[in-house]
């Protein structure tokens, strides 16, 4: 029973994972965007827990708990603090209209399905079906960092990209060694903290967190 | 099935051609009396059209002929022949010719004394004869000469109202585009002839079977471009929205309903007859071009408020829908799914016939409105349903049919196209599957947008209050124009409710081309595609709708509902009077689309308000312009013409005006040629 | 033969009589969620009766299109009730149209309603028609791609076959493509039936209404027919969602007691979907008109994903 259920569940959860990435494009409210990231991280943690249960890997359980703590709670808190400090802002239009961005996201998903098809066809892992979804998550995360004007949304895009990479590792190889994961987590945390400070500074200097303004720094 | 001998068929063809020739020459001879020229030209065309109709029916029943005359055309001689595919397109031509002639007889009356009806009658008959012969041509040179004849005759017809600047410009664009297409065809045919070693169509299929290499792709691309420019696929469509409105209405109906279909004829011959199954990218390219044409065609139509231009853009859209079927067929053929290929081709060909019918109908309707109101601008129409009730019903039938709604004919062919696209999941190649997904989405979007566009076209034109004095004084048109429209409207319903006869002919046609029965079963009452994958029963649906439509009023009566009706003015927020200025305009109707697809239209908005000098709260005049611009003209054709002009300017250096220099050029050219030919 | 006729009659009555109740149910649920008592559950029936006894006031600008449209609306909806496997997959008229035919029938109704909106010559009607057609056109690709996804899973576009295959499939609800197609079609349902966040069925604020703007000129029996038809459309869409995506309970034969049971199960499923709509309408604000395309493009994306998942995932 579990052998049928397990791939189905990982596949479904990966779709939900990808769905949160799409919603990040649609959502305009900053606090809502942060909440989406938290939800996505929790989905990721559940997936990690699922894989851990399936492979009976103790380390992976630890990783799952770490994901919940760090990405589900700590980083959203930090980001929320940033949101509060920036205060309410008129929502800036992205570089691309939402329908067009969603269309491109659709193409990116199709692309990742297409590119990953040889891999999923030959891979015998029960989780192989969901690999293109994780890869699509990475691509869309990157895409978000490209099209968004606001630094905070860009950071969220980056974080989702990182989540995607984590999911990819999880699905393709059942996770990286524990030490490596911890190192990556630490990096991400430090990166977020640094970026938070930067956002604050940008806001102080330009009274806006639109990255367009950075162009003015050029001599 | 009765067998008719070759000689009889040839005699029939000769009679039809003789009618056309008599009409053409008769109109010229009787040029003095415009009235006489009009009658001679049109009656001859009607008789010739009848001849073509019989010939096509005989051909569809399975009769064939071959005719070869070694003289007249050097090198290859004249070769004609009839098979089912030719007969099918001959049917399209015959229907178009008959109705356009009946309609034109009355329509061209107002040309008397204003434009030359002799030239018109000549070109009209010549055009019909050339089209009929194009589909019968059986070798390359015969085909090319007739093709060029057809293009020139249609050019003359477009130029009928040559006293307007717009017409001159349209004629020029048409001439350039059609000759660019012709050049592609010429080179394509020559390359094909060179590699195959013959210009004979019948032998190409066998010879191209084992033929590989870049020349084969080059031939496909060249011929595809040539036929595509005649069919009006995007981005080769720019002549359509100019030439169709400029031409007299019967000619618009013929060009849009029939002539552009010969581009489809060429593509079908190319993809299924001359070449067998080709590489996947051929079909995929056709499919993608078709999807783009369909969606962009209807999007441009939506923001167009010139009724005839709107219809012209819809031709681009419908050519796209037809080519979705053709392209899908080519792809199925590539992957060896011949039964599905036949199904897709049946869908495409059925839509070809349907489009010929409802588009002729709609153009004739627009011509009737043009005669009644003397304008093509929809913003000046309105309320015509009360002034021209029969034209309105015919136009409504055409609108519902082109929007592919049941129970009319457009629905059947679009339904078949959808099924063949959905069945693409049987193709075992993922990239191809994705192309089909795009095609399905494009067709769906197209059908929704087409419905929206014809709500606008019919609603703004015919409903509510007239927006101008012209529209207020409109009246119903003469009987022969209405008769032609009525005939086409009935055909729309007939082909939508009982598609069986045409489907069975088409099934045989595609069998001849592909060699497999189409994956569709049909009886009088139902159609089933691919077993139980999809079924529809147009007859039952129409019948059930009728029964329910009759039952509801009876039900209301039985329940004791209040059946009284009081006529009162439209509710207008308490305004004192209701005028046409309160109505929604065509621009307003299309505005949401303009905003949603703003990326494509890049609308130019201008708002000029002149305030009253005393107070800003009173305005003197408001001028509002909101126009969409064509990406293709801006991004493709304008740079192209600019490039051609700069080339011309450079070439001007050669023109010194000195005779000796010109003679020197001749010498140089001679020497170069001699060296090359050595 | 006789049983077949009885089944079709039962479906017809179910839709015809159930539609006003469904409308009443959603209104009642919404009222309760918003802390109001709300009108009676049976209020829509009383409204219909009221309209039927009143005389119809027709604008002097209108033509026969305006008077014909209400009858066409009701006829199309009743015809659709005959085609859809509401109670059993063995509906005698099921063969007359697959799911695509059904969608085109709905489009036919929308087409004429939009024409009727233009017919009176008031700016409201035109505005409603224009917006309604915009939304209908933009919803169409989602519908077809979602249908494509269903066809891929089932290998058929016949409504009965989709239900039959769905019921026999284990773990249907864990199939991501299935769920994605459901969400996509659910959003389309909201758009097509004029619910929040696309259109507000209870507003009469001129600049925000879509469906109500189109039918502003109707009164008397015409209004009764139009409102009845739009109620039936909602009922049909919800029962399509219920039976295509959660096919359990639909009778696989013409056994009388099973058909009866199917009716009860269908009522429960539709009631549940109605409750979801009520909750959504209470918790969401109407979208600006020009953000509706964003929502629809989102639903299109979901449908596309559903198709992709069937192509690429074994």
Overview of the structural elements:
The complex is a heterotrimer of chains A (219), B (678) and C (314). Chain A has 219 residues and is mostly helical. Chain A has helices spanning 2-26, 30-55, 58-86, 98-122, 131-147, 151-173, 178-206. In chain A, helix 2 runs antiparallel to helix 3 (58-86). The termini of chain A are far apart. With 678 residues, chain B is mainly alpha-helical. Helix content of chain B is 69%, strand content 6%. Chain B has helices at 6-29, 34-60, 84-107, 117-136, 140-158, 165-196, 201-208, 214-231, 240-246, 249-274, 280-302, 307-334, 338-373, 384-387, 389-402, 409-422, 430-462, 469-472, 479-497, 500-514, 538-558, 586-596, 598-601, 631-651, 659-677; strands spanning 65-69, 78-82, 520-522, 527-529, 534-536, 565-568, 604-611, 619-627. Chain B has a three-stranded antiparallel β-sheet, with helices on one face. In chain B, a hairpin with a 4-residue loop joins strand 3 (520-522) and strand 4. Chain C has 314 residues and is mainly α. Chains in contact: A-B, A-C, B-C. Chains B and C meet through helix 15, helix 16, helix 17, strand 5 and helix 21 of B and strand 1, helix 3, helix 4, helix 5 and helix 9 of C. Strand 6 of chain B pairs parallel with strand 1 (56-59) of chain C, so a sheet runs across the interface.
Q: TL;DR?
A:
The complex is a heterotrimer of chains A (219), B (678) and C (314). Chain A is an all-alpha fold and 219 residues long.
